[in-house]
Amino acid sequence: MALGKKKPAIQATDVFAEVNAPVEPKGHNLAEVAVDAGSLDLNPSTASFPVSQDLVTPEPAALAPDLAQSTEPVRSNYSRRDSLRGEAFDSPEPAAMLTADRLIDNGNRNRPAPESGIRRLIYFVTLKSVNLGDSLLVRERKALDARIGAQLEGGTKFVPVLTRKGGVGKTTVTTLLGMALSLVRDDRVIAIDANPDRGTLAERVSKSTRFTVRDVVNRAAAIDGFTDFSNMVSRDVTRLDVLASDNDPMLSEAFNEGDYNVVADMAARYYSVVLTDCGTGIVHSVMRPTLQRANGLVIVSGGSVDEARLASETLTWLEANDYGDLVRNAIVALNTATQATQLVKLDEIEAHFRSRVRAVVRIPYDPALAAGSVIKFADLKRGTQEAARELAALVIDSMQSHA
Question: Least C-beta-crowded within 10 Å: which of 135, 324, 346, 361?
């Protein structure tokens, strides 16, 4: 008996080919589709299933090919330096990036005329076609002027000048600092003699009044405006105003914490920078409001062993009384005109203070300061003037960073 042909087996791929064949779009009601439960293989082989490309999640490169191919970091925090390096940013450049330094052309044609010297002569001889600009010395001076004259935010700034030892030039340093500030800054600067032991600050400038801090305290209620207050101070040619201390030894001890607050509040109405020439009594009641108001600090040290040690002990006392931040931001004025300066290693003293404060400035010996009388800034040696200006710049720097 001849055998009939064997019926070919139905392949799974044929079944799924029929299932996946295109059909007319229909509604999504599942009740309309008849399914034979017996015809379904409950354990199908996954290898036999065709993979529909429509169900595969696209790769990131397909969605954003430009971003996928880019290897540069994308940032939102703009900076001019990163922009010049070609950094990529994910947002438009903000208006704050349009700074004067970026936009103003400081090339040969547009730079300011040289201030003096052969460079200025060349500039005018060539009918302004050749502009070499200022010399390095002039540029450094202008840069220092810019630091000294920087705008201070947040109201009047108070800067005490103090040390625990007398005779190291504290009053002289206060005067030099005030003159250097006043010569450059557009606002008003005053130096107040808060020494309860008869200070001599007013004797460092040409005296134009006999009023003292005591008169300010007694007449505070009657002072109505800067004109009234200016009548009680002596003004130097540098525009520094100086308010003298009590000149009667019998009254000097009466200048206390409350009196200083009255004078300081009055000065804060009319001045941007208030320098306070403090006494040697660091535990005196006047010292408390002086330090509480302080935005900067200048410590004066002489060049001898005991003078340097006492100045360092002043820093230790301040740190122990919760003025550590003030100490770390302080400037030490190292007066090298004191006795025994030639016998000690000034570099070692300076290195010690640099480990504790923000900066150290050496004040050189100057015959114009040695007399202890009126100081004329223009008559000082160039090195002394530059030291005073550097001290002023550092004090302004410290107050800007402390704000």
Answer: 324
Q: Containing H/E element for 335? A: strand 331-335
pLDDT digits (tens, 9 = 90+) for 79-117: 766 676 667 777 788 887 788 777 776 666 667 778 778
Tens-digit pLDDT profile for residues 242-295: 999 887 666 555 678 899 999 999 999 999 999 999 977 776 788 999 999 999
Could you give the CA distance from residue 213 to residue 216 in angstroms, rounded to a whole number?
5
**pTM of the entire predicted model:** 0.71
Tally of structural domains, the chain:
2
Q: Which structural domain range is residue 182 located in? A: 148-402
- Cα–Cα distances (Å) from 395 to 65, 80, 150, 349, in that order, read 55, 29, 11, 20
As a whole number of angstroms, the distance between CA 270 and CA 201 comes to 20
In a domain, 280, yes or no: yes
DSSP 33-78: S---GGGS-SS--GGGPPPPGGGSPPPHHHH-HHHHH--S-EESS-
The two beta strands, 331-335 and 359-363, are: parallel
348 and 199 housed in the same domain: yes
